[in-house]
Amino acid sequence: MRVAVFSDVHGNLPALEAFVAATAREVDAYLCLGDVVNYGPWSDDCLELIVSLPNSILLEGNHERLFLGLDPVAHEIPLVRQFYEHASARFERADLIRDLPLSTDLGGFTCIHTIDGQRVFRDTDIEIDRDYLIGHTHHAFDVRRSGKRIVNCGSLGQNRKELSRASYAVMDLPSGDISLREIDYPWQRLLAEMEARSYAQVCLDYYRSKLPA
């Protein structure tokens, strides 16, 4: 059995559709580590597609909490608040993000959006007592800490290194082998839709700054 593990779609439907096309014949199940919503213009569409995937599990991320009003958006930085204003305006599928599990176990890994609410990067000094498969920081990596392993599958919809690439992981069971993957997708469609929905210029400029020169 092979499982596609992904995170931080952030309303980017073209990236999600490209990912599904790339994995449909390779994997038997899907695990999303949260943050399907916000930033991009297709939060509803992304949620609907994810829950329709075979053997799909969706976990809660911090942006699901924002969209449910469980965490105050006022505590976010101004850029996030600008994205939230646009992305939440047409959001209707709160039913798909209520009462989501926070974590699940897969192949000996604890799968969760992040560890104790922290922003965990490749060089983060952190003590752990188990193997983790996480997202949240939008950077893919595979490192060891305290004799245990942290695998970050990266961001499917908002790769902070290069927005034009969608990152995810594939786990092979029962071996537990994990491979980190990246694919191209039609990012031009994302920017065009954001412009069509009159996203703030600061949002458009931020996304353009993450594209290759």
What share of the residues lie within helices? 25-40%
Tell me the Rg in angstroms.
Answer: 16 Å
What summary fits the major beta sheet?
5 strands, mixed
What's the total helix number? 6
**Approximate strand percentage:** 15-25%
List unreliable stretches of 5+ residues. none
User: Looking at the structure, what is the overall shape?
Assistant: globular
What features would you describe in this structure?
With about 210 residues, this protein is α/β, with parallel strands linked by helices. It is built from 6 helices and 10 strands, in the order βαβαβααβββββββαα. It has helices spanning about 15-25, 45-50, 60-65, 80-85, 185-195, 200-210, and strands at about 1-5, 30, 55-60, 105, 110, 130-135, 140-145, 150-155, 165-170, 175-185. The protein has a 5-stranded mixed sheet with strand order 3-2-1-9-10. β2 (about 30), α2 (about 45-50) and β3 (about 55-60) form a beta-alpha-beta unit. The longest helix has 11 residues, at about 15-25. The radius of gyration is 16 Å and the shape is globular. The termini are far apart. The model has no long low-confidence stretch (mean pLDDT about 95).
